[in-house]
Amino acid sequence: MNVDAMKCGRLARVVALGSLVIGSTLPAVCVAASCFKVMDATAYEGKPEMGALGIQPIKLEDPRHWWHGVPDDPKSLKEATIKATGPLVGLKVPLLVDLELPVVGQSPDIAANRGRYIDVIHWMREAGLTAPLSYYSSLPVRDYWRAVKGPGSPEYRAWQAENDALRPIVPLVSALYPSLYTFYDDPQMWVKYALGNISEARRIGGALPVYPFVWPQYHNSNKRLGYQYIDGTFWSLQLRTLYAHADGLVLWGGWDFTNNRKAPWDEHAAWWQATKQFLANTHNLCPVSTR
User: Fold this and answer.
1) How many beta carbons lie within 10 A of that of residue 69, not counting itself?
2) Average of per-residue pLDDT across 31-58
3) Are 8 and 236 in contact (CB under 8 A)?
4) Among 25, 110, 168, 235, which residue carries the largest CB count within 10 Å?
5) Which residues share a beta bridge with 262?
6) What is the CA radius of gyration of the chain?
7) How far is CA 241 from the centre of its chain?
């Protein structure tokens, strides 16, 4: 065991990220988890058996579906949430709530939204759910431009203050799932953006594991590249960056937004070939559990 591994402790792993970004060599980093968890949240039609490749399931739920047509008061929302949670009781795989309410600002509505994040978890636990439970994206608030500014900038500190306001939610979740979707075809900037968001997740989450979401297509907010698939080299860089700095990752995508249906699986897609190569070279994947 080398000195870096000794510093990390017996159960941790040390990863040398190396020269992933042109002109930049990053040092070895200590990641708390002893294994790396890859999870599947894709919707592709005809996708392969992910468990055979070391990819495990995760379940997403959107409570806005539960609340459709329900009066917007705590009693009604609680009743609807408890009813919707009933069929999920007994679930063993991680459950992510895709709430995505605005949480930035000082208005009473924003404060109420932050409280809603706390309420939903309490209601679901009251319904009897015992599975690992957390939120997609909201911890921390996803940010691109302020993340790449760096910790010394006023913009970065303002972003940190916004994340600090979310700290009351953190003790209720089992892990943090920041969103690291790709907005621009700039690998160097993506790495900076990813490291900034992971760093914020570590800062507010303490010892909680961090599992970022990644999507092999460009975000639809990019009018030129939206929904186009990322090339294999860039995608491989993203996977290796997360391996070096996170505890795992979640694959998302597989929806044809133009036709509002599941997208067909493409076994030969560059992103999938890069993913399979990454999995084959990752010898400490967490054991797959489908219970």
Assistant:
1) 5
2) 92
3) no
4) 235
5) 255
6) 19
7) 14
